[in-house]
Amino acid sequence: MAVDPNVYDIEIEHVTKRFGDFVAVKDMNLKIKKGEFFSMLGPSGCGKTTTLRMVAGFDQPTEGEIYLANTPVAGVPPYKRPVNTVFQSYALFPHLSTWENIAFGLKRKGVEKKEIQQRVDEAIAMVEMESMRDRKPVQLSGGQQQRVALARALVNRPTVLLLDEPLGALDAKLRKAMQLELKKLQSEVGITFIYVTHDQEEALTMSDRLAVMSQGLVEQIGTPTEIYENPQSAFVANFIGVSNIYLSDVIRVENGVAECRTDKGLGVLVSVQDKAIKAGDKVGVVIRPEKLAIAPAEKMDEVADRENVYDGVVKAVVYIGSVTQFIVDIEGKHLAQVLYQNLYHTEREEWAQEQKVKVACWKDSASLITDVEKGMAEKDLMGEVVKRI
Ligand SMILES: Nc1ncnc2c1ncn2[C@@H]1O[C@H](COP(=O)(O)OP(=O)(O)O)[C@@H](O)[C@H]1O
Ligand SMILES: [Mg+2]
Question: DSSP secondary-structure letter at 307?
Fold first, then answer.
């Protein structure tokens, strides 16, 4: 089922949650569309689980209102909400088989035997566990247990499924496989998913849209591409992937291009896109490592058509197989991380420390952030990397 852009399954309006003096969620506003795979991404402690618990009804907002399918749900107990939750700890009953674990909730609700049979079989088929229907949890791998937990939620045919770091206990390879499976399952069953994770790659891979959270605040909401290509704050730019960020002044804006000067005096041209940026603004110029091109000085024509071309010196080279990572000093002013795709067999030999290079970037490949204060502490990380080399 496709996402219906006009219908919201969940609306969170000005929701604040306090535990005593501590504010775990601050004035949150979110609208999640019907059929959407929506993720909440942020570091541990930023308020993700608290938000899910309020949607599920295990906790009440201190302020604000939550709507499920246009109906305010304050005071509605969890079991009466069209919502199910899958937790990181699967909490399966150890003495029950796969089939019985999935049937448990329906039996307790007094659903008719024949219907239980049919719905449990259907849920088992969805997660492809037919061959393990009689096994106990100890006879299942972590990934298989997670599927049972998923089926146990799906059997209730919820409108919305809440998933709280459901793949957290799995090893990296299985986790990747389950990510794709979950995504496929979600688009087949058409249930709205709210997926909580602290893993940025996971959120980018799976989501239609995501909210990036920090310290109880939603920092940015957007599609994976919007969030990655156009982060709105230093926090988002640093949390999602790696960014080179340079504090800068805007000298002038002409024809949609901002002429910026970094705090060390490097000039950079950046497309302003739809942002309200004007001369005199303090901004952060954000350049992703893969968007900086580097070329040995004698091959400068390879990068000469980019609006920003600088002299650089290679400070460190780390060969990572598919790419080589460089730390490059740009005109004695800034350090930048550069990722270079190794397309040819010979490239590994070409690079040396202290080698002189050209470093270049298109104006459209950089972006600007206006919220430059928060998260800028991380910009010193690059200095740390180099000191260790
Ligand atoms: N019942 C509670 N009482 C007091 N503090 C809580 C309670 N639940 C969560 N918190 C605090 O709220 C913050 C957000 O927690 P949580 O939503 O679990 O974060 P996340 O899921 O993003 O890791 C944390 O600092 C946590 O310690
Ligand atoms: Mg949590």
Answer: S
